Amino acid sequence: MLNKPSIKLFTTFALILLASQVSLASTAQDRGLEISKEMKTRDAGWGDNTAGMSMLLRNQYGDESIRELHIKTLEQDNEGDKSLTIFSHPKDVKGTAFLSFSHTLSDDDQWLYLPALKRVKRISSSNKSGPFMGSEFSFEDLSSFEIEKYNYEYLSDERVNNIDSYKIIQYPVDKNSGYTRRLVWVDKLEYRLQKVEFYDRKNALLKTLLYSDYQLYLGQYWRANNMQMTNHQSGKTTELKWRDYAFKVGLKESDFKKNALKRAR
Q1: How far, CA to CA in Å, does 170 sit from each of 120, 148, 204, 250?
Q2: Based on the structure, what is the number of domains in the chain?
């Protein structure tokens, strides 16, 4: 049987151990948030941009189809970005337009215009985990990254894509998210996304997104020319090949109106 001094010593040790564990957890959360804020800060101030994109869809049997898109994006102060995506090829999706207003705290606003139906469809928050135009990207994936959308935890330093990176967990705050968590790798030098793993509502690995072929614009803003999303559960992939980036082209709020979706070109 332990004597009183021994019990007191054991209790003190247990309290110190508990305090250290709480401190480590708090430090990991703070570090994860700090890295994420730095990543966001380094990509602020670009104003607006346009870009072209080829979307390569590949099924589990290797069959491929290609879609051509044009994207306009407007940066917002103290709020999420606005973006307009317009399909130009092939014929069966030509004229399809997707408008997205990302928000920091409230649900994103998203609309999809389908020319075959000649109507604008609003994407509800409960359906944002659904696939975007048959790709392996969900509507949720197309929202701009905002700090307030996640809780964070730094895990470790790790090399990915042969680059020294930080490994962080992002826990979505939104209860309608299709993910329980995302594992994110951010390179230490430029704070660019290198890899993201998405875990579904059953906490199983669903998808992996790899970024490559980064290019620097305006001496400050990095953009990946290639993004490949692999669905581990279906065997399908979607590859995005970006081109023709142009920044500060003079886009305005009026370029992102819902009633302009049907006239988008």
Answers
A1: 32, 11, 15, 33
A2: 1
